[in-house]
Amino acid sequence: MRGARRTGAGRRLSGYVLALLLAAGTLVAVGPAAGPAEAASVCHGRPTRVLGFATGELRLFRTRHYVCALVVAARPGVPRAMAVSLQPRGGRAAVTSGRFARQAGPVTVHALNRCVRASATVGGRSVATGWILC
After folding, report:
1. b/e code 64-96 from CB counts within 10 Å (16+ = b)
2. Res 79: pLDDT
3. Quick one: pLDDT band at residue 4, thresholds 50, 70, 90?
4. DSSP state of 45
5. Cα–Cα distance list, 20 to 6, 9, 32, 80, 132 (Å)
6. SS3 for 90?
7. Average model confidence (pLDDT) for the chain?
8. Which residues pair with 102 in a beta bridge?
9. DSSP labels, 32-44
10. Residues 59, 45: contact at Cβ < 8 Å?
11. Which tens digits make up the pLDDT trace of 21-48?
């Protein structure tokens, strides 16, 4: 009965394979750790401001050179009119508008050493800032 006995290396290898399959099966059954509410942002930089309003929230992110904005609906699902605008002082506004189910944006502007103002609309309700992040 040659080959019927396993060597120590063979047992270790089968143990590693079994542990790997078990971990993969658990990940498939349970899913990743982050849920849909914890999804990564599409804007780069650190979160700077979050302005909530009745139908959504305006999120602002900043890096050293850029500011990014997006608006997220409070109740995603049905496409509705949304718009997000971001304007650096002395520059033109970057605008994204249309009918979206979850979010409008991102819009990004170059804002090194400049103030910006942002506005957002979801389903007829809106929020706007003055000159911020100066």
Report:
1. eebbbbbbbbeeeeeebebbbbbbbeeeeebeb
2. 97
3. low
4. S
5. 20, 17, 16, 45, 50
6. coil
7. 83
8. none
9. -SS-GGGPPPSS-
10. no
11. 555 554 434 444 433 444 557 999 999 9
